[in-house]
Design goal:
By secondary structure, the protein is mainly alpha-helical. It contains seven helices and no strands. The protein has a domain of 80 residues. The radius of gyration is 40 Å and the shape is elongated. The N and C termini lie far apart (125 Å).
Length: 208
């Protein structure tokens, strides 16, 4: 019997397919090899220092809500400690927002450099209260009179001090916001000098 001749083109195509198949398998095998997880697709592998920085950031990231809350409490506690030290030393970097700025510092120094009637209100109030508790008519009348005198003196001294603070601020800080600075200074006068926070940075009679 005669066999049909096999076309030469079919033979060459079969051999070409057999040669391409191993190459395709090699490509698939290479693609399945593990890739560096720190190197994004299509980007070079990061340097060792960059990889260490990324690992530290991942390690410092809180993994649970409880850990995140604990970290926030620790940060808040550290911030409050810095503020407490700043109130004692006058460090502007960590002072609360109400005490920051050159305007507030000038007002504090302006108040601390002079005597104010309002700073003696607490000890005078204790003395007057003791006198009013004594069941003697004359002493009670004296206590009532002292109350009136102290209140009048505090009001007059506060008005005069407010006028001086406002005038000094207008001359020293004409282009800066002075909102609330006068009230800030008057509230400071109600505290005894040794109890004021931030601590006084100037002496009595010293010009701020």
């Amino acid at each position: 019997m005669l066999r049909h001749p096999v076309p030469l083109g079919f033979v060459f195509r079969s051999r070409a397919k057999e040669e391409k198949a191993p190459a395709a398998k090699a490509q698939v095998t290479d693609s399945k090899q593990p890739r560096d997880p720190q190197a994004p697709k299509g980007r070079p592998t990061p340097k060792r220092s960059e990889a260490q920085t990324q690992r530290r950031s991942v390690a410092n990231t809180p993994t649970s809500r409880k850990e995140a809350a604990k970290r926030q409490r620790d940060d808040r506690r550290a911030q409050m400690e810095r503020q407490r030290q700043a109130l004692a030393s006058g460090d502007e970097r960590y002072l609360p927002a109400r005490d920051k700025g050159p305007v507030r510092k000038f007002v504090r120094d302006f108040v601390d450099s002079r005597f104010c009637v309002a700073e003696f209100f607490l000890p005078l109030a204790v003395i007057i209260l003791v006198l009013s508790m004594v069941r003697v008519g004359s002493l009670q009348n004296i206590a009532l009179l002292l109350w009136l005198i102290v209140i009048v003196l505090i009001v007059l001294d506060s008005i005069l001090l407010a006028f001086r603070i406002k005038k000094a601020l207008n001359a020293r800080f004409p282009d800066q916001s002075r909102k609330g600075a006068v009230a800030y200074g008057l509230m400071r006068t109600l505290q005894m000098r040794r109890l004021r926070l931030p601590k006084p940075q100037v002496k009595r009679g010293e010009r701020p």
